[in-house]
Amino acid sequence: MLTQLEIDSYNELGYTGVQNVLTFEEVQELRAVTDNLVEESRKITVSDEVFDLEPEHTPDSPKVRRIKSPISVHPIFDQIIRHSGILDIVAQLIGPDIRTNGNKLNMKLSEVGSAVEWHQDWAFYPHTNDDILAVGVCLDDMTKENGCLLVVPESHKGPILDHHLDGYFAGAVTDESFDDSDAKKIELRAGGVSIHHVRALHGSLPNTSSNQRRLLLFQYCAGDSWPLSGIDWDGYKSSFLRGQPANQPRLVDVPVRMPLPGSKRTGSIYETQTILERSTFSKK
Ligand SMILES: O=C(O)CCC(=O)C(=O)O
């Protein structure tokens, strides 16, 4: 559980990091299952519905960039998205009724792991209110060297920056005036979790180290936060992890830019962001 100070800090800054949420044994099990999945990826040469591959991937030398929906692929991931240690923390930040609107495992392999360009998750999935956050479960120690998550403090209270290029959604900040000089690192040991608000500006640099950085990301929404597009009752109902669905979305005055017209490149955030003409990172 978070202390009141930690809750206040999250509300003020829009992010936090918590050590030792998962046990060593839980992390070991997640790693073993992930290793087996990477072995499976030897059977494919192009990204599919399960794997997003790094450009360097070959069957002899598998290089997975992301497992797209791990909870659909192995029950251990479904257990961890419902982990009471995680959900108890999430409930402190967005309330007792919790549903999920996505999950992914970003691999960030040693030497080749791709950057995730600066973006706000809210630009991808605006809702009726912004009691939404992402929890990143560290399968490895997450450090500056292996491409830890970076967040701009207090950006969750600001505007939604432009994420469009040539009129189409580009999945990354394209606002020329964006400056990342205030960004802060979230560094954690394996078993720790990062938490960032859905409107917080965040991204991560490529992994140039010899240590991989696998981050299992779970998106959690308050039960009364409804997406502004693409929802049906069965999908909404089945997304609940705690509490009961209710047909009364809570409407809050929040800034919104719809991710429309849609991206010219789909598949994953990495694919979408390949449309960019230059990196969104200032030299660090
Ligand atoms: O893996 C990371 O460092 C960032 C993940 C992220 O923001 C995303 O996949 O949307």
Structure overview:
Strands 1, 2, 3, 4, 6, 11, 13 and 14 form an eight-stranded antiparallel β-sheet that branches. This protein has eight helices and 14 strands. It has 284 residues and is an alpha+beta fold. It has one domain (4-273): q2cbj1_9rhob like domain (Jelly Rolls, Sandwich). Bound molecules: 2-oxoglutaric acid. Residues 104, 106, 116, 149, 202, 204, 215, 217, 269 line the site of 2-oxoglutaric acid (AKG).
Q: What small molecules does the structure contain? A: 2-oxoglutaric acid
Number of strands: 14
Categorize the overall geometry.
globular
What are the secondary-structure elements, in order, as H or E? Answer: HEHEEHHHEEHEEEEEEEEHEH
CATH class descriptor? Mainly Beta
CATH superfamily: q2cbj1_9rhob like domain
Radius of gyration: 18 Å
Mean pLDDT: 95
The number of domains is: 1
Biggest beta sheet attributes: 8 strands, antiparallel
User: What would you call the structural class?
Assistant: alpha+beta
* Poorly predicted regions: none
CATH topology heading: Jelly Rolls
**Estimated helix fraction:** 10-25%
Our measurement of the CA-to-CA distance between the termini, rounded to an integer number of angstroms, reads: 34 Å
